[in-house]
Amino acid sequence: MRYLFFVLAVVMFAGTAQAQPKTAAPAVPMAAVPAPPAAMASDDSPDIAPAAVAPLANRLPERVTRPMRAVDPMTLRAEGGTIRLWGIKPAQSAETPLELKALDLMDGLIQEQQVNCRIMGGTMLEMIARCSTATNQDLALELLKNGFVVVDRRQTYNTVFATAYEKDQESARVAGKGVWALVKEDLNQTNANGLPRWLEPYMSFLLPLALIFGPFGGLLIVGLVMWYWLSRMASLQEKEAEQTSRKEAMLQSRERHVLISTLEGELMENKNKIEAFLVIYGDMLRGLQDANEVPKYQQGGDIVQKHPTFGRAVFEANVSNLSLLDIKLAGQISKLYSAMPKDQEYINLEPTVPLETAVKLVQKVLKEAETLIDPLNNVITGLSTATQKKGDAAA
């Protein structure tokens, strides 16, 4: 019996253990799970493949080799992106031909062949790389050798390429290529103080001389400048005075010519009047002296004109301008016109006047008129001579 109860207890305990549900094991955090050793990892493992593939989608390639084209001295354009050359930066210069020469150099080096670039950084759209041509010519070094770019020391510092880059840049600087030619030109023209280079050796004795003689030299220069301008002003004034006097002389010459012409015309008219007067009264005198004729005045009286009617309008209008003529000629003209009566006078011959008295009266009138002929001819000749002299002077 005792063994029977023991067997029943064992059977009941076993049934109760099988009827209870299984309890889940406690979860272990993934961070606590150690990573499998590198030696155990393989590309075929399904557990680590997704973690390795995801970063590779944004990872930059180690090298890019394909045909490229230079778009500026720093940049290459390839299918699918842009590559900037590593270790260099543009030379700061306003000289556009410098950039054109750099592009020409790069086109000559690449020659539309493939370019092999070692990617150094950047993004997929704009990578930074060290690039060489199909003939293993480093583009950055070639640009440095020709002075078209300068070293970017922020990139090359503490790298194995720093020495080579600096060496090629120094060779371009010493040879005065590219941008370094412009730098040398500026340095040759002036120093740090803004003084020309050729003047530096003489500054030791030029400076004391400038301090001692500078004020006197300044005064001398100011004096010379003032003298120059004063002499120039005097010369201009003399020229203006000469031009003014020349204009006045020309104006006087014209006025003189007009005066001579008008006076000569008026005197010729007066001469004609005297000649006509002499003809008329000469006939009258012959009639009085003819014994076969009865004098006209004895038949009904007659009027005798004591002198011709002279024109004086031109002379009186130009009395103040006679100074334009020669003094002697002006005196002759004035004397002639003074001898010419201004107002006309007449003598009445009554029939009772004796014939002898009438004859003497007419003879006196003719004689006074004849005395004006010679002075009148002299003045007219003088005016003609003055006109000829003016024409010769003008020629």
Given the C-alpha coordinates, what overall shape results?
rod-shaped
Give the helix tally. Answer: 13
Average pLDDT, to the nearest integer?
Answer: 78
User: How is the largest sheet built, in terms of strand order?
Assistant: 1-2-3-6-5
What pattern of helices and strands is seen along the backbone? HHEEEEHEEHEHHHHHEHHEHH
Number of domains: 3
Span between termini: 184 Å
Q: Specify the structural class.
A: alpha+beta
Reported for the largest beta sheet, the result is:
5 strands, mixed, barrel
How would you name the oligomeric state of the polypeptide chains in this document? Answer: single chain
Strand proportion: 5-15%
Q: Which segments are poorly predicted (pLDDT under 50) over 5 or more consecutive residues?
A: 1-57
The helical percent reads 55-70%
Counting DSSP E segments of at least 2 residues, the number of strands comes to 9
Compute the CA-based radius of gyration. Answer: 66 Å
Would you mind describing this structure in some detail?
The protein is built from 13 helices and nine strands. It has three domains: 60-189, Beta Barrel (OB fold (Dihydrolipoamide Acetyltransferase, E2P)); 201-248; 255-394. Helix 8 packs antiparallel against helix 12 (355-370) and helix 11 runs antiparallel to helix 13. Strand 1 and strand 2 (75-78) form a beta hairpin. The strands form three sheets. A five-stranded mixed beta barrel has the order 1-2-3-6-5. It has a two-stranded antiparallel sheet with strand order 4-7. 16% of the residues are buried. 57% of the residues lie in helices and 12% in strands. With 395 residues, the chain is α+β, with helices and mostly antiparallel strands.
